[in-house]
Write a structure and sequence with these properties.
about 220 residues; alpha/beta; Rossmann fold; Alpha-Beta Plaits; 2 domains; seven-stranded mixed sheet; four-stranded antiparallel sheet; 6 helices; 14 strands
Amino acid sequence: MEELKKIAAHEAVKEIKDGMIVGLGTGSTAKYAIIKLGEMVKEGIEIVGIATSLRSEKLAKEVGIKVADINEYEEIDITIDGADQVDTKKNLIKGGGGALLREKIVASCSKKEIIVVDESKLVENFSFPLPVEVVKFGWRHTADKLSKLNFEPKLRENFVTDNGNIILDCSYDRLSPNFSEMEKEINAIAGVVENGLFIGLADEIIVGTKEGVKRIL
Ligand code: 5RP
Protein backbone atom coordinates (compact mmCIF):
# COMPACT_ATOMS: atom_id res chain seq x y z
CA MET A 1 0.00 0.00 0.00
CA GLU A 2 2.91 2.35 0.75
CA GLU A 3 4.06 2.06 -2.86
CA LEU A 4 0.57 2.99 -4.14
CA LYS A 5 0.50 6.03 -1.86
CA LYS A 6 3.91 7.04 -3.11
CA ILE A 7 3.13 6.77 -6.83
CA ALA A 8 -0.01 8.87 -6.37
CA ALA A 9 1.89 11.54 -4.42
CA HIS A 10 4.75 11.61 -6.91
CA GLU A 11 2.33 12.01 -9.79
CA ALA A 12 0.73 14.99 -8.05
CA VAL A 13 3.98 16.88 -7.46
CA LYS A 14 4.59 16.89 -11.24
CA GLU A 15 2.01 19.70 -11.33
CA ILE A 16 4.10 21.92 -9.06
CA LYS A 17 6.02 24.63 -10.92
CA ASP A 18 8.62 27.19 -9.95
CA GLY A 19 7.25 30.10 -7.91
CA MET A 20 4.08 28.36 -6.74
CA ILE A 21 2.46 28.66 -3.32
CA VAL A 22 1.80 25.03 -2.38
CA GLY A 23 -0.58 23.69 0.25
CA LEU A 24 1.02 20.81 2.12
CA GLY A 25 -1.41 18.13 3.25
CA THR A 26 -1.24 15.87 6.28
CA GLY A 27 -0.93 12.11 6.62
CA SER A 28 1.10 9.19 5.40
CA THR A 29 0.26 9.80 1.71
CA ALA A 30 0.74 13.58 1.70
CA LYS A 31 4.06 12.96 3.44
CA TYR A 32 5.44 11.43 0.22
CA ALA A 33 4.53 14.60 -1.66
CA ILE A 34 6.28 16.77 0.93
CA ILE A 35 9.44 14.66 0.79
CA LYS A 36 9.46 14.76 -3.03
CA LEU A 37 8.92 18.53 -3.00
CA GLY A 38 11.90 18.80 -0.67
CA GLU A 39 14.00 16.99 -3.26
CA MET A 40 12.75 19.36 -5.96
CA VAL A 41 13.70 22.34 -3.78
CA LYS A 42 17.21 20.95 -3.43
CA GLU A 43 17.34 20.68 -7.23
CA GLY A 44 16.50 24.40 -7.51
CA ILE A 45 12.73 24.88 -7.72
CA GLU A 46 11.47 27.77 -5.56
CA ILE A 47 8.16 27.25 -3.78
CA VAL A 48 6.47 28.43 -0.62
CA GLY A 49 4.62 25.83 1.45
CA ILE A 50 1.46 26.40 3.48
CA ALA A 51 1.16 23.57 6.00
CA THR A 52 -2.12 21.98 7.06
CA SER A 53 -0.72 20.77 10.38
CA LEU A 54 2.16 21.32 12.75
CA ARG A 55 3.61 17.93 11.82
CA SER A 56 3.54 18.70 8.09
CA GLU A 57 5.14 22.07 8.83
CA LYS A 58 7.91 20.31 10.76
CA LEU A 59 8.51 17.76 8.00
CA ALA A 60 8.48 20.45 5.31
CA LYS A 61 11.10 22.49 7.16
CA GLU A 62 13.22 19.38 7.71
CA VAL A 63 13.29 18.66 3.97
CA GLY A 64 14.13 22.28 3.13
CA ILE A 65 10.78 23.74 2.05
CA LYS A 66 10.16 27.36 3.02
CA VAL A 67 6.93 27.44 5.05
CA ALA A 68 4.81 30.59 5.37
CA ASP A 69 1.73 31.73 7.26
CA ILE A 70 -1.44 31.27 5.21
CA ASN A 71 -2.44 34.85 6.01
CA GLU A 72 0.46 36.19 3.96
CA TYR A 73 -1.07 34.98 0.70
CA GLU A 74 -4.38 35.66 -0.98
CA GLU A 75 -4.50 32.28 -2.64
CA ILE A 76 -2.68 28.98 -2.72
CA ASP A 77 -1.85 27.71 -6.22
CA ILE A 78 -2.08 23.97 -5.62
CA THR A 79 -2.66 21.89 -2.51
CA ILE A 80 -1.76 18.21 -2.38
CA ASP A 81 -3.52 16.34 0.41
CA GLY A 82 -4.67 12.83 1.29
CA ALA A 83 -8.10 11.56 2.30
CA ASP A 84 -9.61 8.71 4.28
CA GLN A 85 -12.24 7.90 1.66
CA VAL A 86 -13.13 9.31 -1.75
CA ASP A 87 -16.21 8.69 -3.87
CA THR A 88 -16.44 8.84 -7.66
CA LYS A 89 -17.90 12.38 -7.47
CA LYS A 90 -14.75 13.62 -5.69
CA ASN A 91 -16.48 13.96 -2.32
CA LEU A 92 -14.15 13.18 0.54
CA ILE A 93 -14.02 12.12 4.15
CA LYS A 94 -10.97 13.58 5.84
CA GLY A 95 -9.68 13.96 9.35
CA GLY A 96 -8.39 10.50 10.17
CA GLY A 97 -5.15 12.26 11.05
CA GLY A 98 -7.04 14.96 12.95
CA ALA A 99 -6.01 17.89 10.73
CA LEU A 100 -9.38 18.43 9.05
CA LEU A 101 -9.93 22.03 10.15
CA ARG A 102 -6.68 23.42 8.76
CA GLU A 103 -7.01 21.10 5.75
CA LYS A 104 -10.44 22.51 4.96
CA ILE A 105 -9.28 26.10 5.38
CA VAL A 106 -6.30 25.48 3.08
CA ALA A 107 -8.46 23.60 0.53
CA SER A 108 -10.97 26.45 0.46
CA CYS A 109 -8.18 28.95 -0.31
CA SER A 110 -6.61 26.80 -3.05
CA LYS A 111 -7.02 27.35 -6.76
CA LYS A 112 -6.53 23.61 -7.21
CA GLU A 113 -6.94 20.84 -4.65
CA ILE A 114 -5.35 17.54 -5.62
CA ILE A 115 -6.15 14.51 -3.46
CA VAL A 116 -3.77 11.59 -3.43
CA VAL A 117 -4.94 8.16 -2.27
CA ASP A 118 -4.26 4.48 -2.74
CA GLU A 119 -7.00 2.45 -4.40
CA SER A 120 -8.39 1.07 -1.12
CA LYS A 121 -9.77 4.55 -0.31
CA LEU A 122 -11.95 4.80 -3.41
CA VAL A 123 -15.52 3.76 -2.46
CA GLU A 124 -19.07 3.89 -3.72
CA ASN A 125 -20.57 4.58 -0.30
CA PHE A 126 -18.72 6.13 2.59
CA SER A 127 -18.11 3.97 5.64
CA PHE A 128 -15.16 5.69 7.37
CA PRO A 129 -16.33 7.20 10.70
CA LEU A 130 -16.74 10.92 10.14
CA PRO A 131 -14.23 12.93 12.20
CA VAL A 132 -15.80 15.99 13.80
CA GLU A 133 -13.62 18.57 15.56
CA VAL A 134 -15.39 19.97 18.61
CA VAL A 135 -14.45 22.23 21.48
CA LYS A 136 -13.76 20.38 24.71
CA PHE A 137 -16.23 22.43 26.73
CA GLY A 138 -19.56 20.59 26.84
CA TRP A 139 -18.43 17.93 24.39
CA ARG A 140 -20.85 15.32 25.78
CA HIS A 141 -23.75 17.61 24.87
CA THR A 142 -22.28 18.18 21.42
CA ALA A 143 -21.99 14.39 21.05
CA ASP A 144 -25.66 13.97 22.08
CA LYS A 145 -26.70 16.38 19.34
CA LEU A 146 -24.63 14.47 16.79
CA SER A 147 -26.42 11.27 17.91
CA LYS A 148 -29.72 12.94 16.99
CA LEU A 149 -28.39 13.16 13.42
CA ASN A 150 -28.03 9.34 13.51
CA PHE A 151 -24.33 9.31 14.26
CA GLU A 152 -22.63 7.29 16.95
CA PRO A 153 -19.90 9.63 18.21
CA LYS A 154 -16.82 8.23 19.92
CA LEU A 155 -14.25 10.41 21.61
CA ARG A 156 -10.79 10.03 20.03
CA GLU A 157 -8.71 9.09 23.06
CA ASN A 158 -5.57 11.03 24.02
CA PHE A 159 -5.83 13.35 21.06
CA VAL A 160 -5.85 17.15 20.91
CA THR A 161 -5.91 18.93 17.54
CA ASP A 162 -3.41 21.62 16.53
CA ASN A 163 -6.18 24.06 17.40
CA GLY A 164 -6.59 22.77 20.96
CA ASN A 165 -9.86 20.94 20.30
CA ILE A 166 -10.93 17.28 20.44
CA ILE A 167 -12.24 14.89 17.80
CA LEU A 168 -15.42 12.83 17.86
CA ASP A 169 -15.28 9.96 15.36
CA CYS A 170 -18.85 9.51 14.24
CA SER A 171 -19.97 6.11 12.94
CA TYR A 172 -23.17 5.74 10.89
CA ASP A 173 -25.14 3.08 9.05
CA ARG A 174 -25.48 5.11 5.90
CA LEU A 175 -24.70 8.79 5.38
CA SER A 176 -27.58 10.95 4.25
CA PRO A 177 -27.06 11.33 0.46
CA ASN A 178 -27.33 15.13 0.63
CA PHE A 179 -23.75 15.63 1.81
CA SER A 180 -23.77 19.42 1.56
CA GLU A 181 -26.85 19.62 3.74
CA MET A 182 -25.33 17.15 6.21
CA GLU A 183 -22.10 19.14 6.35
CA LYS A 184 -24.05 22.29 7.20
CA GLU A 185 -26.29 20.54 9.73
CA ILE A 186 -23.31 19.17 11.63
CA ASN A 187 -21.51 22.50 11.64
CA ALA A 188 -24.66 24.23 12.92
CA ILE A 189 -24.42 22.34 16.23
CA ALA A 190 -23.03 24.52 19.03
CA GLY A 191 -19.61 23.20 19.96
CA VAL A 192 -18.78 21.82 16.52
CA VAL A 193 -15.81 23.54 14.92
CA GLU A 194 -15.65 21.61 11.63
CA ASN A 195 -16.36 18.19 10.19
CA GLY A 196 -14.49 15.95 7.80
CA LEU A 197 -16.95 16.01 4.90
CA PHE A 198 -15.19 17.78 2.01
CA ILE A 199 -17.83 18.41 -0.63
CA GLY A 200 -16.97 20.16 -3.88
CA LEU A 201 -13.48 21.03 -2.70
CA ALA A 202 -11.38 18.47 -4.58
CA ASP A 203 -10.51 19.26 -8.20
CA GLU A 204 -8.59 16.13 -9.01
CA ILE A 205 -8.14 12.75 -7.36
CA ILE A 206 -4.97 10.82 -8.12
CA VAL A 207 -5.37 7.16 -7.21
CA GLY A 208 -2.40 4.84 -6.85
CA THR A 209 -3.43 1.41 -8.15
CA LYS A 210 -1.54 -1.81 -8.83
CA GLU A 211 -1.89 -0.98 -12.55
CA GLY A 212 -0.43 2.52 -12.12
CA VAL A 213 -1.95 5.93 -11.35
CA LYS A 214 -5.51 6.79 -12.30
CA ARG A 215 -7.12 10.21 -12.28
CA ILE A 216 -10.62 11.32 -11.42
CA LEU A 217 -11.18 14.76 -12.93
C1 5RP B 1 -5.63 14.09 8.07
C2 5RP B 1 -6.27 13.60 6.85
C3 5RP B 1 -5.48 12.67 6.00
O1 5RP B 1 -5.37 13.21 4.73
C4 5RP B 1 -6.19 11.36 5.95
O2 5RP B 1 -6.35 10.89 7.27
C5 5RP B 1 -5.42 10.33 5.13
O3 5RP B 1 -4.24 9.99 5.76
P1 5RP B 1 -3.31 8.84 5.24
O4 5RP B 1 -2.73 9.30 3.94
O5 5RP B 1 -2.28 8.65 6.32
O6 5RP B 1 -4.16 7.60 5.06
O7 5RP B 1 -7.37 13.91 6.50
O8 5RP B 1 -6.50 14.90 8.79
